[in-house]
């Protein structure tokens, strides 16, 4: 008797050639790069040919402990591809745009914006939060009263 079994692939982010990584420490902190070659189980060769000048990461060896794997992959990237082919595939896949529109990048931008607020701007945020909370509680009380 054959059983009906649904086989689902895992959603793990694997260390693979073409995987886009976010660099967490070092001189390129916060920038995106892609894995072009796996050196060993702790290090990879990365290249970040971003379309924006200030986000370019030169080709170098990176410890995996200094990188966070993103859900983005450049498919069919040949092993040890040079910067030119990587740049073409990077632009074709629109990696910069995909990452910028992800909730991860939006959250990072919000955290960065909050870090740079002045004292008065923090006070204004506090007042707006209080005002919002008051309106929500008032609406909830109205619903409770009518029920």
Task: Give the topology, please.
Layout: E1 19-23, E2 32-38, E3 43-48, E4 57-63, E5 67-73, H1 83-93, H2 95-100, H3 103-115, H4 119-146
Antiparallel strand pairs: 1-2, 1-5, 2-3, 3-4
Write structural notes for this entry.
By secondary structure, the protein is α+β, with helices and mostly antiparallel strands. It is built from 4 helices and 5 strands; from the N terminus they run βββββαααα. Helices cover about 40% and strands about 20% of the residues. The mean pLDDT is about 90. It is extended. The N and C termini lie far apart (about 55 Å). A 5-stranded antiparallel sheet has the order 4-3-2-1-5. It folds into 2 domains: about 80 residues, Roll (SH3 type barrels); about 30 residues.
Overview in brief:
With 147 residues, this protein is α+β, with helices and mostly antiparallel strands. Helix content is 39%, strand content 22%. The model has no long low-confidence stretch (mean pLDDT 90).
Features:
Rib_uL2_dom2, 5-stranded antiparallel beta sheet, ribosomal protein, alpha+beta, extended, SH3 type barrels, cytoplasm, Translation_prot_SH3-like_sf, 2 domains, 147 residues, 4 helices, Ribosomal_eL14
Strand content: 15-25%
Low-pLDDT stretches: none
Number of spatially distinct domains: 2
Going by helix content, strand content and strand pairing, the class is alpha+beta
Helix percentage range? 25-40%
Structure summary, number of beta strands: 5
How does the overall form come out from the CA principal axes? extended
CATH architecture of the largest domain: Roll
The Cα radius of gyration reads 22 Å
From the 3D structure, determine the CATH topology of the largest domain.
SH3 type barrels
Question: Helix count?
Answer: 4
Can you tell me the CATH class of the largest domain? Mainly Beta
Mean pLDDT: 90
Major beta sheet summary: 5 strands, antiparallel
Distance between the termini: 55 Å
Would you list the SSEs in sequence order as H and E?
EEEEEHHHH
Pfam families: KOW, Ribosomal_L14e
Keywords: Cytoplasm, Ribonucleoprotein, Ribosomal protein
Domain KOW: 14-41
Subcellular location: Cytoplasm
């Amino acid at each position: 008797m054959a059983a009906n079994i649904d086989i689902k692939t895992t959603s793990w982010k694997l260390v693979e050639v073409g995987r886009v990584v976010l660099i967490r420490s070092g001189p390129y902190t916060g920038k995106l790069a892609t894995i072009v070659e796996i050196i060993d189980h702790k290090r990879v060769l990365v290249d970040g040919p971003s379309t924006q000048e200030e986000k370019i990461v030169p080709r170098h060896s990176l410890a995996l402990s200094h990188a966070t794997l993103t859900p983005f992959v450049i498919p069919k990237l040949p092993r040890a591809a040079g910067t030119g082919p990587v740049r073409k595939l990077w632009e074709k896949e629109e990696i910069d745009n995909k990452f910028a529109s992800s909730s991860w990048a939006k959250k990072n931008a919000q955290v960065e914006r909050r870090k740079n607020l002045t004292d008065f701007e923090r006070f204004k945020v506090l007042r707006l939060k209080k005002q919002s909370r008051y309106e929500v509680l008032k609406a909830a009380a109205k619903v409770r009263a009518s029920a």
